[in-house]
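LOG
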Amino acid sequence: MKDLKKICKIAVVQAAPVMFDKAACTEKAVKYIVEASEKKAELIVFPELFIPGYPFGMNFGFAVGCRNDQGRKDWMKYYENSILIPGKETEILARAAKDANAYVSIGVSERDEETATLYNSNIVFSPDGEIASVHRKLKPTGSERVVWGDANKNYFPVVDTPWGNMGSLICWESYMPLARVALFEKGITLYISPNTNDNKEWHSTIQHIAIEGHVYFINADMYFTKADYPDWVKKEDLDKLPKTVCRGGSCVVDPYGHYVNEPVWDKEAIIYADLDMTEVPASRMEFDGCGHYSRNDVLELRVNEK
């Protein structure tokens, strides 16, 4: 492993998007980037689909074998507020990252440049204002598949940072063991997980993954309420939702599976932490899953990179 910068000053943003308004979401993201930069954050991480929001509880008029016109209109509103990469919104975010002199990771609904397909994606911007990586979610979960397509490229990108290689898996991708290994084989030290998981079982998962990979696990979760939905969303969709749709629970877990900070619930917050990166190689003394504790002559992973 190369030499690592000893301390990573991180800011994890737990916040509600301005639902289904890409311009307002981008503006809110920039405000949080500025605020975090004033605290000298070097890595700023946002949740899954911060632009333009996660359409929790909506079905866009789909049922097995049929769909309806109103659902198609609602889907078009979501489509129109999904973003191109690169595009106007990424230019604004890249400028904010450069002004902050920070890496910025943010989840977005990406609109393909050539087709009408959407992708659940995560972008990392570098401190020099460039797009360092884009990761598309390999497999949307459950009914997400009526909104976003399977990734067709950008499967396992990593970013070379002063703290080592940094990669991301979105939400339930982290339940895919082989996807995790694909990142571990690239030597990541920082594992970013933009997600919308606010259940207690998820926290057992993230602690296990931190130990499994001996990485810092960045759990960037969303907080939003029923009141955050715009008035055009169908009343019958909203009536099924609890007052708080996603409670958050954002935190950072160290390479031994311990919380660096306790999970934050039921509010917007920026979570700050100084990560001691020497803990990563130190934790691998007795277990290095893709190094001295591997058996490549017995077990082999084949990854189709695009």
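LOG (cont.) second protein
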Amino acid sequence: MAFGPKLSRRSVLAGSAVSTFTAVGLIKQTASAADPISCAGPASDKPWTTVKDVASAGWSREKLAQMEAELYPLPTTSMMVLQGGEIVYCYGNISDVSYLASARKSVLSMLFGRYVAEGKIDLNMTIGDVGIEEDDGLLPLEKTARIKDLLTSSSGVYHAAGSPGGNENTPERGKTEPGSVFLYNNWDFNVLGAVFEKRTGKTVFQALKEDIAEPLGFEDFEIDRQRMMGYENQSRYLAYHLFLSARDMARLGQLMLQGGKWDGKTIVPETWTTESTKMRFTPEETKSKEGLGYGYLWWIPTSSDPAFKGSYLMNGNFGQFVLCLPAIDTVIVHRRAVTDEFAVARNLGKTTYEPTKVTAGDFLKIAEAVVAART
């Protein structure tokens, strides 16, 4: 829990008008869980608002402080809790921009919604219809996989992926009926980026900027920071990697909670927010230790807690999460930042090092502690 003003690293490096010494001097000599919320990050034209009083908003400061204590042993770098579109709690520097890892996939799902509604993307089209091919060829059965099968990571195409991070233990090719078996496969996800670009005429990064970042008023988005990465000798289709801040990821979660509307405008069709977060494969089928099912590029929690009813999750390696809890109008964002240099090296196959991470299980325990802080 933030106990006073924090100075962002970016502000220090930029030579902010307020010196480090002055800023530190503004911090109280003593702090308690009753102190007002203060979130780090440079000012913007469309900042998040914070609740005026956490207790009056229905949250226990003491229980939030207990939850925060659970973060200290973890490599968490920032976290936000929103209710009703306002910040209830924040931790770390929410303006720091870093690698999303596989949380990018849920963002791509959001981008698909508009173009599915417009008819530019037909989920029943096969990858053969779209013109997807590999240098060493795809098998006839593989070419019958539909776009909707890619969205559920069940294409049955077990060609080598052009990026790390998927399930490397793939079955023999040409033996699995598309749409029948879930296998977390980066080939599917990377090809979806190519399908999107072929059918819309926009790059994933251009669409993110024009369709979401600009209308939502992203505070820290840089289109040049986004990049395609992967192994060019394994597949034609590389990964479209995203680099965003916690406070901009929070906007994505809030947009979904609002049925795809922002400032009265439809950004993502409401029908898509519902369809894309509907469970298509159960936890038993995904073999998730955390009890997570799968929708269209969204993970679906199956907790029996009423607060988790209808929930859905962005889930990225090392600790990149956005959990939407419609039942209590709450978004929880969690970041474990890694450097751009490491993210690039990993995706180019230059390192196999795995830094300490916050697992989905770790995060869900934190989320449960957040939910328990409601009064």
